[in-house]
Amino acid sequence: xxxxxxxxxxxxxxxxxxxxxxxxxxxxxxxxxxxxxxxxxxxxxxxxxxxxxxxxxxxxxxxxxxxxxxxxxxxxxxxxxxxxxxxxxxxxxxxxxxxxxxxxxxxxxxxxxxxxxxxxxxxxxxxxxxxxxxx
Length: 135
Description:
The protein is mostly helical. It has helices at 4-19, 25-29, 32-51, 55-78, 84-97, 100-103, 111-127. The protein has two domains: 4-83, Orthogonal Bundle (Helix Hairpins), CATH 1.10.287; 98-135, no CATH class. The radius of gyration is 18 Å and the shape is globular. The model has no long low-confidence stretch (mean pLDDT 93).
C-alpha cells in the first residue's frame, strides 16, 4: 500500500481552503466554464514536457492538471453534484471493467484482442446506465 492518501487529502484540503471565504480571489471566482481553458493549457504544457523528455517539467505539469481536476471536483461538490471521491471511484470502477484480462479470469493474448475488447466494453457502457450518454 502507498502513503499517497495523506498527501492527497492534504492537497484536497488546500484546494478547499483556496475556495473558502478567506481563500484566494482567483480560485473563488473560477467555474467549470472558466477552467476549461486552463485544463487545455496545462494538458498542452504536459505534452510539451513529455515530448522534451523533461521529467521535472512533466511532474510540475501533471501537478497543474491535478490541481484543475481537484478544483473542478470541488466546485461540483459545492453544488452537491459529486466530489473527488466520486471521481476516483468512477475511474477505479472503469479501469476494473475495462481490464477483465487483469481483474477477472478472461484471457486476452494480443494487443489487438485487447483493443477489440476495450471497444466492446466501451460500447456496452455507452448503451447502458453505467455511464451517462453524451448528447
